[in-house]
Amino acid sequence: MAHVKENLKPQNFQYFLVLDFEATCDDNKKLHPQEIIEFPVVMLNAETLATESVFHEYVQPRVHNRLTHFCTNLTGIIQEMVDGQDHIEDVLKKYDNWMEEKLLSKGHTFAFVTCGDWDLKTMLPSQCDYFNIKKPSYFNQWINIKKEYAAATSKYPRGMPAMLEGLSLDLEGRHHSGIDDSKNITRVVVELLKKGHVFKMTGRL
Fold it and tell me: Which residues form the Exonuclease domain (predicted)?
C-alpha cells in the first residue's frame, strides 16, 4: 500500500461520486419519455480510496410504468422492484438530502463520474424537463470515465468491460445493474488513481 500511496497525486476534488442510471427501455422502439428506474451513487474518497457511502434507490416510472421484458433481461430489474417506489422528484429530494449531509454541509469538493455522457447530459435533463422538475445545479458537470481512461492509457474504451479488462480486473456482479456498474466504475477510478492519474471535468451543461 505504501507503494500505491507514493503514486497517488493530489486531486482536484476530495470525493468522486460514481453514478450509473438505469432507465426504461425496449428493444424495438425508443421510449418517450425514457425514465430512470435505478439511481445509484458511490461516494469515493479521492485520498484514502475508500467508499464512504452509497446512495441507492429504485424509482417508479410514471409513463411506461410496466417494464418491458427487454428492460428486465438487460438490467435485472423486475416489476416488483419499482412498484410502490418513489417517483423521480422524490428520489431527487432524498438524494439532495444525502448530498447535504455527506458533502455540501461540510464544504467538500466533489465530481460526478459517469461511463459516457448520457446519464447527466441526456437522461436526467430530459426527464426533469418532461416532468418540469428543477434539477440541482451540481449535476451540470461531470467526468466521463471513458475519456479519462483514454487519457491515462492512450486507449479509448468501448465500455466498462473493456476498461476492467484493460486494468486486469474481473467484472463483479451484473453488467447493466446500476449499482453493480457504479461499483465497477469505482474500481476503475481507484486503479487510475493508483497509477497517478489526475482527474479533470470532461463534460458540462
Answer: 15-198
Please identify which of the residues 35, 38, 148, 176 carries the catalytic annotation: 176
Torsion from C-alpha of 63, 64, 66, 67, nearest 10 degrees: -140
The total of structural domains in the chain comes to 1
101 is annotated as an active-site residue: no
All three cell numbers of 122: 441526456
Q: What is the CA radius of gyration of the chain?
A: 17
Annotated catalytic residue: which of 22, 35, 148, 191?
A: 22
Q: How many other CB atoms are there within 10 angstroms of residue 28's CB atom?
A: 6
Specify whether 176 is catalytic.
yes
Q: What pTM value is reported for the model? A: 0.96
CATH code at 6?
3.30.420.10
Q: How far is CA 15 from the centre of its chain?
A: 13
| pLDDT tens, the chain, 205 aa long | 545 566 899 999 999 999 999 999 999 889 999 999 999 999 999 999 999 999 999 999 999 999 999 999 999 999 999 999 999 999 999 999 999 999 999 999 999 999 999 999 999 999 999 999 999 999 999 999 999 999 999 999 999 999 999 999 999 999 999 999 999 999 999 999 999 999 999 999 9
